[in-house]
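Quick one before lunch.
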Amino acid sequence: MTSQGPQALQRSIERMLTEANTRMAVGKNEEASRSYHKAAQFAEQMIDMLAESDQRRAMSVRAAEYNQRARTLRSKGSMDGGRIKPVENHEADEVAYSDEEADALEQQILLLIDDSPSRVDWDAIGGLETLKNELKFHYGLAMAKAPEGVQVEGWNNIMFYGPPGTGKTLLACAVANKLSATFFNVKASQIVSKWVGESGRLISTLYRVARKFTGDGRPAIIFIDEFDALCKSRGGEGQLYHQQMLAAILSEIDGFAQKGRRDLVMTIGATNRPWDLDAAVLSRFERRILIGLPGAEARAEIFRIHLESKGIPVDHRSLSYTRLAEKTERLTGREIARLCKEVTAAMLGEMNPDIPALVDAGLQRIQNYEIKVRALGQSDFTRAVERLVPDTGEAAALRYADWGKALNESNRA
Ligand code: ATP
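Model of the adenosine-5'-triphosphate complex:
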């Protein structure tokens, strides 16, 4: 990367902004709109040249803002109301859009970037040790240098399946964190309902924007939760949009595989209903990985994580994570987290009965009050654990394992 490029572009942006202001000041709104539009184009060119993903994101937001101003001024200034011409695009898949549409889609995509992976490390995930190592190994392979003439393939597209709340999202976040990847968090059903009729285009834009973010060698991870929502055969218009979105995702995944170049855009799908995915979908994912209910050892670890990572004191003479784990069979990580929260809240209520009165006494009183805590013991959990009814029934848990077995058998056949 030359340092001249971004600096020259920055100067061009500033020139266009000054020009836009001067034109606006004398009421030439249409011309000012063109200046903003050019500023946006320069900003877009600059995105690829910036090293840091934060800077690229900030620049994308600026580009979108200039485009927005251009649109506002154009609609104020233009009397002819004609359709906006398509902008000159860098990639073929943009050609069909007007600049307005492309902007709106890109803005929507930028909103999908999620910073939460930076807070998720492997040790925030209880259990799943073998899988964590496998993920490290295969994503490591995907990122490492292959020797001359040797084709090494790591994992680019994988699908997690299993009951809700077992850590699928956490795992995707930890992978993204360790690879310093830009994380696009997509909830399939939300995208379809928000972008009725546009979800296919939105997906092409998503992958194009994700590729832009890989300019500095850092990968981008597209996490598509509720993948099954795209495969349900419900019929009607909604179904059509789901299919458009699904077709766009599959063609993006295929397209890159075929080009045979290192693909820094990786897709991680997740589903609670793997049986709704058809063979065409499943075949696109190199691995389908069951994230099942945690075993006793993992549950003990999840209890430890959810109490100790929050600094809640624990009386280890009375409270044993192993004993808690024995009494909480079939609980998911999410349910254990909820249980820890509930028990902690009960302890805080007992230790701090004056809080409501202090709130009534005014902001200063409550701000000066220091919350009292005491160590949690086994008895704090006893009643809460007795009341528990696990969300995942035995039959449901078995269904995941059976589905996985059948899939492996049919793959072997
Ligand atoms: P869904 O299928 O409903 O999207 P999921 O499998 O993606 O669920 P996560 O979002 O990863 O589940 O987990 C939900 C919450 O449950 C986490 O934020 C965390 O608090 C807790 N949790 C789940 N699994 C674990 C785990 N293995 N270790 C620690 N915490 C966990």
